User: Fold this.
Amino acid sequence: MEGFLRLIRDKHPELAAMEVVFVSTPDYSGAFQDGWGKAVTRMVESLAKPSKVRTPWQVNILPGCHLTPGDLEEIREIVEAFGLYPIILPDLSGSLDGHIPESFLPTTLGGTKLEHIRKLGEAALTIVLGEQMRPAAAALEKIAGVPYKVFDKLTGLKACDDFIALLSELSENEVPARYRRQRSQLLDTMLDGHFHFGRKRVALAAEPDLLYALSTWFAEMGAEIQCAVTTTQSPLLERLPCDEVVLGDLEDFERAAAGADLLVTHSHGRQAAERLGVPFFRAGLPTFDRIGAAHRVSVGYHGTRDLIFEVGNVFMAAHRERTAEDFKPQEAGHAAAAPTVPRH
Amino acid sequence: MSALTKKVIELMNEPGCARNQAKPEKERKKGCGKQLMPGAVAGGCAFDGAKIALQPIVDVAHLVHGPIACEGNSWDSRHVFSSGPSTYRTGFTTDLGELDVIYGGEKRLFRAIREIIEKYDPPAVFVYQTCVPAMIGDDIDAVCKAAREKFGKPVIPVNAPGFAGAKNLGNKLGGEALLEHVIGTEEPETTTPYDINLIGEYNVVGELWQVKPLLDELGIRILATISGDARYKDIACSHRARAAMMLCSQALINVARKMEERYGIPYFEGSFYGIADMSQALRNIARLLVERGADAELLARTEALIAREEARAWARLEPYKGRLQGKRVLLFTGGVKSWSVVSALQEVGLTIIGTSMRKSTANDREKVKEIMGTDAHIFDELPPKEMYRMLKEARADVMLSGGRSQFVALKAKTPWVEVNQERHYAFAGYEGIANLVEEIDKALANPIWAQVREPAPWEKEVAGAVPDAVIPAKAGIQLQPAYLTPPGERRDPAGVTKRC
Ligand code: SF4
Assistant:
């Protein structure tokens, strides 16, 4: 491929100004998030320039594919509220966010501008959102010496606190009143919401970065991870709050998820949920049978708060009033309806 | 003197009520009718109390005669369950407006009764008096009588307007309505020597069903529960029971006592909460039935069942012992509280650091004192502010209380378990105590407590107490959209290092 590209370049000098980034992503190797990470790494390697200049208010954001356009918009707002200027790569927030262009175009609008990608090397810091993006940040560090910080997730109180603290430190600005208030709202929501999450058994299937973000957040709310199924290797898998992670498919998932209180995966999990009679929460790509997936925000204090509402409501909706039948002895002399004995 | 006033005075002198009899003459007159203190976290009004006592009758329509808020405020908030009809769950109210207040609401009430009978055809309609119509002089007794004659169906007036007194008195006034208009008005198809009444059991979140299988196994029939999961006919026939158990402290003592007086049904006071109390209740039921003619072999069967169930219950509590050792509980409730709950909680290693005795008898108090070793931690009143302070100072690890103090606990970032009327988990019987311990364990084990108690990042900065002067570039970046202009000055990204 590299050879072909050189050949084309030689034959068409008139295209010299046109950037071409080559990424090797054969179908048989790696998962969706691997391809995403590779594509961004290659963009950085091909387009970012070394720089001796540091722009103190420029922050690079490298978001993994598990974040929605809505998430990116929220992240941009938070970063800007500290007076910092984010360059987001890739930036789906202006592109796949469902706006309507004035005229018909075969390609999407928006995204990160080439000139901005070239300036990645001038940033004070690269903020890496998701382990899948670490290689891209490392590549940039190698090219331009920009330090980076990896956030495994921006969902959950502690993760948000760390993020906000970093931005405050970096910008030397105080945390805006808005985010102080949002934090306090999140606390209140956690207190109200924890009743519905405590000791609930959750089955998740997602790519590693999303799986990590969601499962650790569920655990922070008091739920237990009954099973975790994922697509590809990641250092995060070691740190999941469950005994075992299965590299597998939806069949493995369905088998392991029986008896859970909640199933969490993308839209294709709906049949499994139906067969198992377990409530279902959609997360990850693709979500095609619900509207608004691109705008769901689950990062930041507000995003976390809303996620507690959304999932908490699924739990509440699934709550069934017990009937006399539920209390009937199951076997001779043994009354029914035993609560789960703790398994810690 | 109005009929209501007479009734109230009579109830305040309730001879069956140990607590009341223990009081000096003057105190006793004040009795249960103690006026509510504005601002104190108070129980409901008398109407509320009557409604609590009667609403669990599931097949009748409960019609509240009054402005919307009387019914609206408590509607659908108590989780008393039904194994059949759900008529009791529909909130019927006459929804009095300004014009009704001026012209009187009796006609409106009559029309409401007719509408209910036409649309729902329940076996009976219970009509609840509230403050406003009572003050404007609506005579619900007369309206109910007229409606009963017109529609040929029991229409029961419940005369417990809010101002009559507190919730507790309302419970009893509700009971009076049953005594006067319902109990003894019908006959059961069959009777057995094993028929009992449970008085003051409301089947909150299905707790009756936690106990019923055990009675079924012993061949004991619940003729009527007053009033959990009850049908109108059950209560109308309840005068044929051989014995009765009275639960929930003193709430319906007038019903138990008067049924003994009128129909010769002996009763005992007991509780289904806690292992020891549950066993004692079964023993007493068996004993009373045998005394009234049931075969004496019932006693041995009961003991065998008790032995089996106690062993199971303790085995179920076993895994919690290590985990809960030394955790401190503030038990603040008039509901699920008895000395046997306290002793069960202690058995799994919990320490009760305080309990309320607001609605309990002197006898209860003695028992709790005996179990806790001291009465230093028995509170009569614990105002929310004081409660908050206690929790904030982390003097308790978990609070067990009714819904009203939920937010006191949560604002103090303290684990909380709901144990009153509005609770979602069933805590009765041998199963229930394990459920309660599981709920306590679940609340304590939730990881959110450590998280929400962490100070915010900006509070930590304050804690670090770096004087502003040390950071000269504090306003280094202006809070406005910055654009990518090449910087005139170069500045190190202060304090940011690679920390991955
Ligand atoms: S105090 Fe009177 S007005 Fe208030 S809820 Fe009770 S009955 Fe209604």
Remarks:
- The pocket of iron/sulfur cluster is lined by residues B 45, 47-48, 66, 70, 130-131, 161-162 (CB under 6 Å).
- The two ends of chain B are 82 Å apart (CA to CA).
- Chain B has four domains: 1-32, 39-181, 195-314, 325-423.
